[in-house]
Write a structure and sequence with these properties.
Blueprint: E1 4-11, H1 30-40, E2 46-49, H2 51-58, E3 85-90, E4 107-113, H3 119-128, E5 131-134, H4 142-153, E6 157-160, H5 164-172, E7 178-183, E8 211-219, E9 223-230
Parallel strand pairs: 1-6, 1-7, 2-3, 2-6, 3-4, 4-5
Antiparallel strand pairs: 7-9, 8-9
């Protein structure tokens, strides 16, 4: 049991995802606005990103206070008000400096941790009301994370909006069901600039997935929006 995973990304024609390098996209108020307006059409309130992306939302660094209290093992899901959605961040080491349990738009924060997250850090998340799910020993078991998200939060659909490494890990593990790809009319060409999928480790011996085109729209300014079903081929 897992939610349907839709990877939604905006890239250049050569697959780069760092929108700050592109300048203004004709007909749109920047790549961020283009991303959000297309994202909102799905009506999905749960989204997942990696540690680097989630740092933009977690706020400034804080000092985690040491504690002698032994935090219980397992997941933590506090009693909370009904959220407007879920902001899910992969954080295997337990480093994101959360001081609130909800983002300004009302999404409840959920951290995907491993056993590398310290006792003090987990105690801190409990103190501020952030949910966390234990998803592996050293690295996040993505399949387990999805199963827990479906079970604990009743998620049926999830937007994957990570950096290249996070998206690549989901693709490698065969966990993406659909790709929503916004292509802006820009050629980046920068070496080392993140792409939509950067699979960790050695390159796989063959392509990770075959896709079937489900729809294609032309947006203002020569932007193309393609949606693909992942066939696993």
């Amino acid at each position: 049991m897992k939610p349907k995973v839709i990877c939604h990304m905006v890239t250049t024609i050569d697959g780069r995802i760092m929108g700050g390098r592109w300048g203004r996209v004709a007909g749109h108020d920047g790549s961020a606005n283009l991303f959000e307006t297309t994202h909102d059409t799905f009506g999905i309130s749960a989204w997942l990103v990696g540690t680097t992306t989630m740092k933009e939302f977690a706020g400034r660094a804080i000092k985690i206070k040491p504690t002698r209290e032994k935090v219980p093992t397992g997941d933590f899901i506090p009693t909370r008000r009904s959220p407007k959605g879920y902001a899910i961040g992969a954080d295997r080491k337990g480093v994101l400096p959360w001081s609130v349990s909800h983002l300004p738009d009302g999404e409840h924060v959920v951290s995907l941790l491993t056993e590398r997250a310290s006792n003090a850090y987990r105690a801190h998340l409990r103190s501020v009301g952030v949910s966390y799910l234990m998803c592996g020993k050293n690295d996040i078991d993505l399949a387990l994370a999805l199963e827990k998200l479906a079970r604990h939060f009743k998620l049926k659909r999830l937007m994957l909006e990570g950096g290249g490494t996070m998206n690549g890990a989901f693709l490698r593990d065969g966990l993406i069901d659909e790709i929503s790809h916004i292509t802006v009319p820009v050629a980046d060409g920068g070496r080392g600039v993140q792409t939509i999928f950067d699979i960790p480790g050695e390159p796989p011996p063959k392509a990770s997935a075959h896709l079937k085109l489900a729809s294609l729209k032309k947006l203002p300014g020569g932007v193309l929006w393609a949606r693909y079903k992942v066939t696993r081929g």
